[in-house]
TrEMBL record:
Region annotation (Disordered) ranges: 1-22
Family (UniProt): Belongs to the YkuD family.
Chain segments annotated as transmembrane: none
InterPro entries, alphabetized: LD-transpeptidase, LD_TPept_cat_dom, TAT_signal, Transpep_catalytic_dom
Keyword annotations of the record: Cell shape, Cell wall biogenesis/degradation, Glycosyltransferase, Hydrolase, Peptidoglycan synthesis, Transferase
Low complexity bias locations: 10-19
Taxonomic superkingdom: Bacteria
Protein name: L,D-transpeptidase
Residue ranges occupied by any L,D-TPase catalytic domain in the UniProt entry: 98-234
C-alpha cells in the first residue's frame, strides 16, 4: 500500500491545525484544506418515526461531555447530514469482530460486531491525492495527544512553524480528544483515526490521509478498540 508521509510526523498527527475564535488560533479547516451508545431509535433497519425523533436521539448521542479533561461541547447536529449519525447496521464481512473498516468512498468507519452487524460512524477522509488503501493495525492510542506539524507542512504553510515543537492537547488541538495511531510491520505509518470537532467536515475529503470522527464518536470507538486491532482501509 502507498503511504504519504507529508501529512504527519511520528509521535505527531494528522495534518491539520488548531481552530478557535478569530485572532486566537488559525482555523482547523484552513490547515486541512491548505495542506457508549448507538442510535437505538434508528435500529438495524433505520426505522424512525419522524425527523424529530431522529434529531432528538442524535442530540443525546452528540451532547456535551463535561467530565472530559477538556470538557467537550455538544455537536451542532444541524451541520451533520443525518446519514452520518452513529448507528448500528447490517454488515456482511469476513473480518473478525472488533476490526475497524474505513470506507473512504462513502465517508464511513465501521467497527465490526459479532452478530453480522457493525457500528457505523460518519467520517472525514483524505482529499484527492492523499487517499490510500490497505491493511494496518492500531499500534498505540493517545488521549488528548500532542500535535506536531511535519516539516513538509511547515514548508507549505509557514504559519504552522509556531507549533514545530508540538502543541499540547486541548480543544483546539487538531487531534482532539482521542487518537488511534496506525502501524504496519512495527512502523508508524503517520496516519491516524482522530477526533474532529468540526461537524461540517464529516462527509468530506479534506485531510492528508487521516480519518476523522466526531469527538463523541471517536471516544465511543476508542473505548472499544485495543492496541493491535486490525484496520482495513478500502479503496476509494
Amino acid at each position: 500500500m502507498t503511504m504519504d508521509g507529508g501529512h504527519a510526523e511520528a509521535g505527531g498527527s494528522e495534518e491539520a491545525a488548531p481552530r478557535g475564535g478569530q485572532g486566537r488560533f488559525l482555523g482547523r479547516r484552513s490547515f486541512l484544506l491548505g495542506s457508549a451508545a448507538t442510535l437505538g431509535a434508528l435500529g438495524l433497519g433505520g426505522c424512525v418515526t419522524s425527523d424529530g425523533a431522529m434529531l432528538a436521539e442524535a442530540a443525546k448521542v452528540y451532547g456535551p461531555m463535561p467530565d472530559e479533561r477538556f470538557p467537550i461541547p455538544a455537536v451542532d447536529i444541524r451541520k451533520v447530514d443525518p446519514k452520518y449519525y452513529r448507528r448500528t447496521v447490517r454488515y456482511e464481512t469476513k473480518e473478525a469482530p472488533g476490526t475497524i473498516v474505513v470506507d473512504p468512498r462513502n465517508y464511513y468507519v465501521y467497527r465490526i460486531e459479532d452478530d453480522g452487524s457493525a457500528t457505523r460512524y460518519g467520517a472525514n477522509v483524505g482529499r484527492d491525492g492523499f487517499l490510500w488503501s490497505g491493511d494496518a493495525y492500531v499500534g498505540r492510542k493517545s488521549e488528548w495527544a500532542t500535535w506536531t506539524p511535519p516539516k513538509e507542512m511547515i514548508r507549505r504553510q509557514p504559519e504552522a512553524a509556531k507549533y514545530a515543537r508540538g502543541m499540547p492537547g486541548g480543544l483546539d488541538n487538531p487531534l482532539g480528544a482521542r487518537t488511534l495511531h496506525l502501524y504496519q510491520n512495527g512502523a508508524y505509518t503517520l496516519y491516524t483515526i482522530y477526533a474532529s470537532s468540526d461537524p461540517e467536515s464529516i462527509g468530506s475529503g479534506i485531510t492528508s490521509g487521516c480519518v476523522g470522527l466526531l469527538s463523541q464518536d471517536m471516544i465511543h470507538l476508542y473505548a472499544r478498540t485495543p492496541v493491535k486491532t486490525k484496520v482495513v482501509v478500502l479503496p476509494a
